[in-house]
Each structure stands twice: as C-alpha cells, then as structure tokens.
C-alpha cells in the first residue's frame, strides 16, 4: 500500500494541488498520536466487529501506524531519482506502467527497506495501540485463532511494571525490559542508517 501511494504521488498525480493534498495527508497521519490508532482499532474491530483483543487486530493497527512512515521514506527516495532516468525511459518508448516497473520500483527498494525498518522501530515502542487491541499482562498462550486471542507484548509489560516501580523487587525487571526494548529500537534504526545516508548522498548529486 505504501508503494502504491508513493507511486501514485510520483507518476500519476500531475495536479499540484492533488499532490500537495496527498503529502499533507501523509505528514498529518505520520504525526498523529498513536493512541488515536488504538482507539480506531478498539472501536472498529474490538467493539463493532466483536473480535475482542486479538493479535491480528494489533498487527493491523500497528501496520496502519507504520504506513505513513514507510510512504514518506519512499517519496523521499523517489524524489532522489535523477530526472534523466525517467526521460531516457520515456525516450525509449516505455509506457508509464513500464517506467514504474523498470525504473521507479528498482530505484525505490532502498526507500522501502528504510521506511519499513523505521516504521518497525516506531511500532516496537508503541503501547497505546496494542493496549486497546491485542495485549494483556499475563496469562496469554500461543494464539489459537483470530477472535479473543490476546498476546504478551514488551511495551505493555514495561507499562505495567512501571506502575509498580516503587517496589524494589520490580525495579530490576523494569529496567531490564526497558533496556531490551531500547536495544531493539536502536538496532532497527542503526540498520536503516546506511540506506538513509545513501539516499541523501544521491539527492545531493
């Protein structure tokens, strides 16, 4: 979906007003508080669809929260593609669809990987969306279906432990879990760094 939005913005939306509107929507969604995604998932899936807390709902909500980040990274990568590439492809007689498959998509892989890693890093630390839709503190087992199938999650585990942080016995567990989460987010951001640097170097050429 992120690839589709980025390619629509890059190739088909020649109208500047439409492009500005799409960009404004993406950047607005990227800045939305994560609790709004959680409330959306709770109202639509938990209450309206009657699924209860489920790992699938949590995955859908986190994917929605990642989508703007992935799309914005893709747009930045597509903007960095030299116009000469597109002009050469058009001069060879390629159609728009062929230009997308032969030029834009191969050049956009770095942006897709970078956006996905940054989106995963963001999603890894989200507590509000999963708190409403998919997680419990204890007692969850391996998912056995789609409905009423909650899971254990590290951010919510840290959230619950933080409420008992005055208990000395909880302190070491709290800081240990927080360190694991911090390390996970740092690792994903570090893996995405080379692609981000490459994108900026190509954009400045």
Description:
The structure is a single chain. The protein is mainly α and 205 residues long. It has a single domain, classed as MetI-like (MetI-like fold), CATH 1.10.3720. Helices cover 76% and strands 0% of the residues. Helix 5 runs antiparallel to helix 6, helix 6 runs antiparallel to helix 9 (168-203) and helix 8 crosses helix 9 (168-203). The mean pLDDT is 77.
Summarize the structure.
This protein has 205 residues and is an all-alpha fold. Helices cover 76% and strands 0% of the residues. α1 runs parallel beside α4 (55-79), α3 (34-48) crosses α4 (55-79) and α4 (55-79) packs across α6.
CATH topology: MetI-like fold
How would you spell out the order of helices and strands?
HHHHHHHHH
Instruction: Give the structural class.
Output: mainly alpha
For the record, give the distance between the C-alpha atoms at the N and C termini, rounded to a whole number: 29 Å
The tally of domains stands at: 1
CATH top level assignment: Mainly Alpha
Shape: elongated
Number of helices: 9
Based on CA atoms alone, the radius of gyration comes out at 21 Å
Uncertain segments: none
CATH H level, superfamily name: MetI-like
Strand content: under 5%
Examine the secondary-structure arrangement and name the CATH architecture.
Answer: Orthogonal Bundle
Can you count the beta strands?
Answer: 0
